[in-house]
Structures are given as structure tokens and as C-alpha cells.
Design a protein that fits this description.
This protein is mostly helical. It is built from 18 helices and 2 strands. It has a two-stranded antiparallel ribbon with strand order 1-2. The chain is globular and about 50 Å long.
Length: 444
């Protein structure tokens, strides 16, 4: 059986093609375009004179563009396919990061960051549809777990770049990011399918009784479809994940820099920047383990992986809040946060795919929209809390949010279903599925 769109022969199997396309796109749109802001925040504050509260507002504004893109993706992906949406994300990242590289005023910097921030909203959710169309059922969850880890590989690249980006040289790093985004966009435009997608019989089994196959092409679904019982813990988890993640990515380097730079001399500043870059690189290297998320879920189940991920994230955030000036605590936080955060992305992708089997990209757009709501609220709230009580206190409060998240766990049975596995006749939403697999009809 062959999955994927027809056309020019390609040497790589479809799961490798979509996996490579996804890893690179998620890497540039998240690892560079969104999270690069936090890595270079000390340089931005020095050059543009930004306060912590203003930094928080800018961070939240970048996520507003991300949420706006998500709303459009949920309505458009089943109409036009994943290719044009991912390309839109890549172009947003390219132009936005180019604006940042040439920014001379806070207004231009903010505009570039907001435009770059929309890129991940365009790019991430469509891969649920791309994997659904290009990869055979037994491999889909593993491929989605690998794609979600693309952020980690980009962070590994960004950290060493930051080591050489002192002073005005940070602009060259952002030009490098923009170039990588352009190349990735061209590759995705060549690999990903476009056009409408009519799911096979097994893939429409979870749709509303009596619904015609063409209903999948509609815009946003109704509240009843979104708020199905297995979806509630998923969406609450996404909200918490977005809030905690936005705080850590935006302010971790700032917290480490502030704690290490109390001496205030030039040598301390250089050591401070080196510590931050090494922290970022270690976090990315450790985060590459997130590529195994799909396999971990298949073996241990959603509930256990969910608890381990958020326990690790809570510990990582608490370590920075408690001892941001202690190198051992900083590096342990990076080692914990990297794989747990990257695995969290894979967890949401796989979990959403099980809860919304009838419309995977639309369902994942809803999931990521809840994540986006958390990312919008997180930096702004933390910025004001930090001004009032200090950044360390704000981090400890954020750690408490992560520690409470395992209380909102997947419904019973949600971690034991393996879509596409032999004998699989049901999904986590309780919808019975046929064991026969039909070849999907795909148009380029």
C-alpha cells in the first residue's frame, strides 16, 4: 500500500519525506522565529531599551499573530491542503526574521517579531493532515512525535550562534535564521500535498452519523464536536502547556542573565552571555529525545507519559526560580526542560489525533488554539507579576501551574489505543472503527 501524493518519483519513503519537511519547518518557525526572541532578549533590551513589562507585552503580541493564523488554518486546511499553509508560515518566518535583523527602532523590531510569531501558527497544525495523507496508519504517531521535536534541533543550532552574536552581531544570527526559513519553505513546497482531501472509509468512521464525506471540508466545527468528553482534558493541558512554555522560553535567559550579572563588569557580562548560550544549547540537545515521544506513548500510554512530562517541566521551572545563579541548577533545568517540553508537543499531537480522528488538522488547530491562549496570557501576566514581586517569584508560580497539570489527565483508555495497529477497532473518543484499511484518494 502506498501513501502520499502522486507525481515525481522521490527516493525517500513518504514517512521520511514528510518527517524531514516537518522537522525543518517546525525548527525554523518555533526554534528560530518564536523562541529565538527569548535567547536574544538581553541583546534586544540593551539595544532598544525595553523594560521587563514591555518585553512581556511584546511576547504576548507575537502570540496574538500566532493565534490569528491558527484560526485561519482550522478553517482552510481541509479546503486547500497543508502545502499552502506551511508555505505561508515559512514566508512569515523569513520576512519577519529579516525585519528583526534590520530593525532600528522598537516598532520595527516588534513588527518583525509579531510577523515571525505567526509562522508557527500557520505551520504546525497542517502536519496532522499531511501525515494522515502521506504515511501509513501504523507509523503516523511516531512520525508526528518526530516532527514535534524539530524545535529542539533548531535550538541546538541557535545556542552556538548566540555565543558569537555579542553586540551588533546578533543581527547576523537573525539573517541566518531568515535564510534557513526560506530554504525550508522551498523544500516543503516541493514535498507536501495540496488540494482537498477525501478521507478513506476508516478515516471518516468517527464523523457524525449520516455525515457525507464532503462535510470534512467545512469551516470551524460546532462546539459539541470540539467539546467531546475526551477533548476537555486535552484542551486544558494545551492551555497550561502554552502558558508555562511561553514563560520559560521568553524569560529563562533573562532570569539567568540577571542572576549572573550582578557583578556588572564587562567580563561578567561576557560570561553571562556564554552561560545563557550554553544553557540554550544543552536544552536543545536534551530536547532531541522528544523524537521518541510517539514510541513512548505506544509503549507506556498517554496517562503515564502525560504525568512524567509535566512533572519534569514543573521541576525545571522551579529550579530556575529557586537558584537561577547556580550553574548546576541552571544546567539541570535545561536537561529536564528540553526533553519534557519537546515531548509535550508530541503528546499534544498524538493525543489530538486520537481525540479528533475524523478531522485531524482541524482538531489539532483547536488544540493548538488553546495552547495559543496560554502563550498569549503567560508573558504578559508574568511581566507584570515580575515587576511587582520579582522574576524568581513569577517562575515559582509558573512551576506550580505545571505541577497541577497532571490532575487533568487523559480519560481512561486514552493511552492504550494504537491507531492503525493490528486489531485496533476503536479510538480514544469511543468511536468504533473498521479494521479494514482503504487506500486514501489524494489529489495534488
Amino acid at each position: 500500500m502506498t501513501y502520499g501524493h502522486t507525481g515525481r518519483a522521490r527516493s525517500l519513503p513518504p514517512q521520511w519525506r514528510v518527517g524531514l519537511a516537518g522537522v525543518t519547518a517546525i525548527g525554523v518557525t518555533f526554534g528560530f522565529a518564536r523562541y529565538g526572541y527569548g535567547l536574544f532578549l538581553p541583546e534586544f533590551r540593551r539595544e532598544f531599551g525595553l523594560s521587563v513589562s514591555l518585553v512581556g507585552l511584546i511576547g504576548s503580541a507575537t502570540y496574538l499573530g500566532y493565534v490569528a493564523a491558527l484560526l485561519l488554518v482550522g478553517a482552510l486546511v481541509s479546503r486547500c491542503g497543508p502545502r499552502p499553509l506551511v508555505v505561508a508560515g515559512g514566508l512569515s518566518a523569513t520576512v519577519g526574521m529579516g525585519l528583526v535583523a534590520f530593525a532600528r527602532t522598537p516598532a520595527t523590531l516588534t513588527a518583525g517579531l509579531i510577523l515571525a510569531g505567526t509562522s508557527s501558527g500557520w505551520a504546525w497544525a497542517p502536519y496532522s493532515d499531511a501525515v494522515d495523507r502521506m504515511v501509513e496508519p501504523g507509523l503516523r504517531e511516531r512520525v508526528m512525535g518526530v516532527i514535534a521535536s524539530g524545535t529542539a534541533f533548531a535550538v541546538v543550532v541557535a545556542g552556538p550562534l548566540a555565543l558569537t552574536a555579542h553586540g551588533a552581531r546578533w543581527r547576523y544570527a537573525w539573517l541566518t535564521f531568515a535564510t534557513a526559513a526560506l530554504l525550508t519553505t522551498l523544500y516543503n513546497a516541493r514535498v507536501l500535498p495540496g488540494g482537498t482531501h477525501r478521507p478513506a472509509a476508516t478515516e471518516t468512521a468517527g464523523a457524525r452519523p449520516g455525515a457525507r464525506p464532503g462535510t470534512r471540508r467545512g469551516a470551524w466545527p460546532g462546539v459539541r464536536w470540539i467539546a467531546r468528553r475526551p477533548a476537555v482534558p486535552l484542551l486544558l493541558t494545551a492551555l497550561s502547556y502554552g502558558l508555562v512554555g511561553a514563560v520559560y522560553w521568553a524569560f529563562a535567559v533573562e532570569l539567568i542573565s540577571g542572576a549572573a550579572g550582578v557583578a556588572g563588569d564587562a567580563g561578567g557580562a561576557r560570561g553571562n552571555a556564554s552561560t545563557s548560550a550554553v544553557f540554550w544549547t544543552v536544552m536543545g540537545l536534551a530536547g532531541t529525545a522528544g523524537a521518541l515521544t510517539g514510541s513512548a506513548i505506544a509503549r507506556h500510554g498517554l496517562r503515564r507519559v502525560h504525568a512524567l512530562i509535566f512533572g519534569g517541566i514543573a521541576a525545571a521551572v522551579a529550579l530556575l526560580g529557586a537558584a537561577p545563579g547556580t550553574p548546576a541548577a541552571v544546567m539541570l533545568s535545561a536537561v529536564l526542560y528540553g526533553p519534557c517540553f519537546m515531548a509535550g508537543s508530541g503528546l499534544l499531537a498524538v493525543w489530538s489525533y486520537r481525540v479528533f480522528p475524523d478531522r485531524p488538522s482541524t482538531g489539532f488547530s483547536v488544540t493548538v488554539l488553546c495552547l495559543g491562549a496560554g502563550t498569549v496570557a503567560g508573558p504578559a501576566v508574568l511581566g507584570f507579576v515580575s515587576d511587582a514581586y520579582g522574576l524568581r517569584t513569577a517562575f515559582l508560580a509558573t512551576a506550580a501551574v505545571a505541577a497541577l497539570t497532571p490532575l487533568v489527565r487523559p480519560v481512561a483508555g486514552g493511552g492504550t489505543v494504537r491507531r492503525g495497529a493490528p486489531g485496533d477497532q476503536s479510538n480514544s473518543s469511543g468511536v468504533r472503527r473498521s479494521t479494514s484499511v482503504a487506500k486514501p484518494r489524494v489529489r495534488r
